[in-house]
Amino acid sequence: MPIYDRIVVLTGAGLSAESGVSTFRDPAGIWAKYDWREVATPEGFERNPDAVHDFYNMRRRLHTSITPNAAHFALARLEAEHGGVVIVTQNVDALHEAAGTKSLIHMHGEALKAFCSYCASRHAWHIDLATSTPCPSCAKTGGMRPDVVWFGETPYDLGRISDLLLTCDLFVSIGTSGHVYPAAGFVTEAKASGARTIELNLEPSQGASLFDEAIYGPATDVVPRFVERMLGANG
Ligand code: BV8
């Protein structure tokens, strides 16, 4: 197994599934129960902020009770023992951090953070949010929202992510269906930079044909084995 110096790992909801977090597009997933247009767009928030707060309050409550699984811990071990690893996650849970990952980009934001649309202040947030919640900084009400990236909004840190994709020599996609852009296009950017591309997922994603290699199975099984292989190759 060749040695890699700069590894970018993209993670999605499938990584947290075995921690009890629903995925989005599986048959019993979140979008089978909620209309993304109503709860995950700025227009939906404008139309009915209480419905959006209810949706994220339900998910935030869940996120305060979940724990990392073997896949999260394996990725933290890869970073600690291999070095040169950056995780770009589409997930808004805090399970990568809880497992010990340090070099992490939350491109779709974080369920346990909130920001004020009036003064743009950001706050760690573990309790329910409502339209009546005053901003801890400017004290205004009606402007506090979950610090997550909705459809039609620009994901965070795209410039830094592009630089990472330009310079990585290994791109690993784990637990994502490859439906949502620009994340679903990262494999193409990494390939264009000459990186080897590997997909670890329960089943082939929408972009499966774009990867050099694929390993299918539950994340808590395939990710620790993949990390063992990577660390073994590094001696
Ligand atoms: C944007 C809110 C402009 C947070 C979410 C082309 C280019 C650019 C944009 C677009 C484009 N085409 C369309 C768009 C617009 C849109 C888009 O992609 N629409 C799609 C649906 C067609 N994109 C946007 O609006 C994005 N913004 O484009 O801004 C821009 C663009 C570029 C540059 C500047 C400006 C914003 C997207 C973010 C939307 N926010 N959610 C939240 O509430 O969480 S989307 C939602 O989908 C989540 O964020 C989630 O992270 C994301 C991706 O889903 P996955 O993680 O892949 O989850 P999914 O359920 O789909 O799949 C799970 C996978 O795991 C499955 O494959 C399953 O088999 C597997 N699995 C299950 N169990 C396991 C497992 N694997 C392993 N083990 C298991 N046990």
Describe the structure.
This protein is of the alpha/beta class and 235 residues long. It folds into two domains: 1-21 and 68-108 and 155-235, 3-Layer(aba) Sandwich (Rossmann fold), CATH 3.40.50.1220; 22-65 and 110-148, SIR2/SIRT2 'Small Domain', CATH 3.30.1600. It is 35% helix and 19% strand. It has ten helices and nine strands. The chain has helices at 13-16, 30-33, 36-39, 42-47, 49-63, 70-82, 95-99, 158-167, 186-192, 219-233, and strands at residues 7-11, 85-89, 104-106, 109-116, 122-124, 144-148, 170-174, 196-201, 213-216. The strands form two sheets. A six-stranded parallel β-sheet has the order 3-2-1-7-8-9, with helices on both faces. It has a three-stranded antiparallel β-sheet with strand order 5-4-6, covered by helices on one side. α6 (70-82) runs parallel beside α10 (219-233) and α8 packs parallel to α9 (186-192). The radius of gyration is 18 Å and the shape is globular. The mean pLDDT is 96. The structure holds ligand BV8. Ligand BV8 binds at residues 12-14, 17-18, 23-26, 29, 40, 90-92, 108, 148-155, 158, 175-177, 179-182, 201-203, 205, 218-219. Residues 12-14, 17-18, 23-26, 29, 40, 90-92, 108, 148-155, 158, 175-177, 179-182, 201-203, 205, 218-219 line the site of ligand BV8.
